[in-house]
Write a structure and sequence with these properties.
GO molecular function, one term: efflux transmembrane transporter activity
CATH superfamily of the largest domain: Outer membrane efflux proteins (OEP)
Radius of gyration: 40 Å
InterPro entries: MdtP/NodT-like (IPR010131), OMP_efflux (IPR003423)
Helix content: 55-70%
CATH architecture of the largest domain: Up-down Bundle
Structural class: alpha+beta
Strand order of the largest sheet: 1-2-3-4
Strand content: 5-15%
Keywords: Coiled coil, Lipoprotein, Membrane, Palmitate, Transmembrane, Transmembrane beta strand
Distance between the termini: 70 Å
Order of helices and strands: HHHHEHEHHHHEEHH
Number of helices: 11
Membrane topology: Lipid-anchor
Organism: Flavobacterium subsaxonicum WB 4.1-42 = DSM 21790
């Protein structure tokens, strides 16, 4: 009867603790919106699912020198290596969370000596009872023990299990973070490499123009001797040559800086970057297939990272909510304890214990509430970050799709402009020699022709960068 009453009291206590823990403060909840448009352009009617993001980067980039640079960067880049260590940190966190909801088992051994005052209950008891028959109790009394013990928190509400699952999500998030760093690194290397090739081409054009302008200067000097032009014409041509020669050194400085940027990304000290300096003029932009916007959710590492962070934040809310509920702890131990080491392994020295405790917060739960509110706010924050990442990815691809199309048309027109101005140089020189054109017309024609060739190179560079950027925006490169 007494035993049954004890059980009844325990049951009432458990119900009371559970009821107290279930009264949770109200919070705002928000579900994410992952709806995206059906296409990247309002004028697009086809639903072609071919996507260039699935192409491996070694197949997407054909230049062997560029492939070698990317391989070096993936092995040596410091930012990428830092990210790899973040993955190791997240993996260790998973192990820690997994260990928290498993029983803790340990081995305990010890020895000590204890002198108890005779004017206490224990002291009086020890001196009235013979520990060793026929002998006076030893004073002070020694103590030896050896055994194993275990502690375990029963994960009734899934608090520890959800904490482990959140750690797993964050680990997977760091993996996607590494993939995103890889896509950024590949695009940076490729863009810088194409910029380097463009600068090589510009330098070659400047050198050609210097030769053309030097020839024109010699003609002007001869015409001055023949009194057909004045010293003013000679000085204007000289100034044009000097200006173009100074441009040559500006380009050489840009080449040095671009090479060093590539070397930094590759994790190495400044050195010449292997390349074919004549290859830029033969480059043809790769045909890119954008697929459909919904594929971004699977291809973009930053979107998958934001999704995993959101999943982890939702689990954090569950963990914080479980702190309001009662916790059940179980502890146990078994071993031997004796006042003499020679008695330590005798059956009479055996001891064991088993205990359980149930606890729940009743009053002053401000710290738990604050953790719960914070976890909920972070979850809402993660929702907005996830939606923003999707929106940003869509806008990036839409911009690059439009840019590829417009640059293709622009390059065709600029090519025609360069052809016309190149022919006009020869025409202006012939007219000038026959005194049918002013020297200023020759100078302006040479300047316009040089600028148009530079514009053509810049347009082609933008084309190559657009093919790199759209590949990056689609989520290609990390696989």
């Amino acid at each position: 009867m007494l035993k049954r009453s004890v059980y009844n009291y325990i049951a009432v206590a458990c119900i009371g603790l559970t009821f107290t823990g279930c009264k949770l403060p109200g919070v705002v909840q928000r579900e994410e919106n992952t709806n995206v448009p059906a296409a990247f352009s309002s004028t697009t009617t086809t639903q072609d699912t071919i996507n260039s993001a699935t192409v491996k980067w070694k197949e997407y980039f054909k230049d062997p020198n560029l492939v070698a640079l990317i391989d070096t960067a993936l092995a040596n880049n410091q930012e990428l290596n830092i990210t790899l260590q973040e993955i190791e940190i997240a993996r260790a966190e998973v192990r820690a969370r997994k260990g928290e909801y498993l029983p803790f088992l340990g081995l305990r051994g010890g020895a000590g000596v204890d002198k108890v005052s005779r004017n206490t209950n224990i002291g009086a008891l020890e001196h009235n009872i013979e520990i060793v028959p026929g002998k006076e109790n030893p004073e002070p009394l020694q103590d030896y023990q050896l055994g194993v013990y275990a502690n375990w928190e029963a994960d009734i509400w899934g608090k520890l299990h959800n904490a482990k699952k959140a750690a797993v999500k964050r680990y997977l998030s760091t993996v996607e973070g590494r993939n995103f760093v890889i896509t950024n690194l590949i695009s940076e290397i490729a863009n810088s490499y194409y910029e380097l090739l463009a600068l090589d081409t510009q330098l070659d054009i400047v050198k050609q123009n210097i030769d053309i302008q030097n020839n024109a200067l010699e003609i002007v000097k001869l015409q001055k001797l023949a009194t057909r032009v004045t010293e003013l014409a000679v000085k204007r041509f000289e100034a044009q040559v000097l200006n173009t020669r100074s441009l040559q050194y500006e380009i050489q400085q840009k080449i040095t800086e671009t090479e060093n940027r590539i070397n930094f990304l590759a994790g190495r000290y400044p050195q010449p970057v292997a390349r074919d300096a004549k290859a830029f003029s033969t480059l043809v932009p790769t045909t890119v297939y954008a697929g459909i916007p919904a594929q971004l959710l699977a291809n973009r590492p930053d979107i998958k990272q934001a999704e995993l962070d959101l999943a982890a934040a939702k689990l954090d809310v569950k963990v914080a909510k479980a702190r309001f509920y009662p916790t059940l702890g179980i502890s146990a131990g078994i071993g031997y304890q004796a006042f003499d080491a020679s008695y330590l392994i005798k059956p009479q020295s055996l001891l064991y214990s088993l205990a359980g405790d149930l606890a729940a917060p009743l009053i002053n739960r401000n710290a738990i509430k604050a953790t719960y509110y914070s976890a909920n706010a972070k979850q809402i924050q993660a929702v907005y970050n996830y939606e923003r990442t999707i929106l940003n990815a869509y806008v990036e691809v839409a911009n690059q799709v439009s840019k590829v199309s417009n640059l293709e048309k622009s390059y065709t027109l600029k090519s025609q402009e360069v052809d016309a101005l190149t022919q006009s140089i020869e025409i202006s020189n012939s007219l000038f020699q026959s005194a049918r054109a002013d020297y200023m017309e020759v100078l302006l024609t040479q300047r316009d022709a040089l600028e148009s060739r530079f514009d053509l190179i810049e347009t082609k560079l933008q084309q190559m960068s657009a093919t790199v950027n759209i590949y990056h925006a689609l989520g290609g490169g990390w696989n």
